[in-house]
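Async update (no meeting this week)

Hi team, since we skipped the sync, here's where things stand on the single-chain job. The sequence we agreed to prioritize is pasted below, unchanged from the tracker. I ran it this morning and attached the output directly underneath so nobody has to dig for it. Comments welcome in thread, and please keep replies under the output.
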Amino acid sequence: MRRLGHVILAVVVAFVLVVAATLYTRTRAREVEPVGPTPIKADLNVKEVRVEEETGKVRWRLTAERALMWDEKGAGRTELRRVNVEVDEPDRSWSIVGDEGEYLQKEKRIELRGNVVVTSTDGLRLETNTLRWQAKERRVWTNDPVTIFRDGAVIQGQGLEAWMADERTQVKGRLRVTFAERAQERAR
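Output:
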């Protein structure tokens, strides 16, 4: 019986040593993650960006909390954080905000992502998650759900495409439209 006790003790000690050795080697081999933000490998990292341009009768201003710029093969890609774009036209002004964006300089294309809201001085408000602009075609589009508010009407759809030169807009997918009475019409 005494011998059986020694055998059990030896097995338990051997098991504990194997577990301890395994834990030791795994904790020593584990890479420690760095504390703080990941280093950014952009060509240029700019805080508080402001860009203004005037083309004909249209003036626009882009501001961003941060910009990371790369010049990959001359493409000129810029990632933006907390983006605000203001566009002044002769007959109205636009304000466009988003959590982040990307600007491709060579293609003159910008994409805003995350809580994108467009408002205009003529009463339009558009909400979506992604909005893209192609300067050459003067086209704005998204494939994400959109909600448009204007003069008491609410339009919801799956995607949107607008051609600025033609002043033509198409809301895609299955539409839901709600009309509310205007305050003037209720007063009659």
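Quick observations from my side:
The helical segments are 2-29, 183-187.
Residues 2-29 form the longest helix (28 residues).
Reply here if anything looks off.
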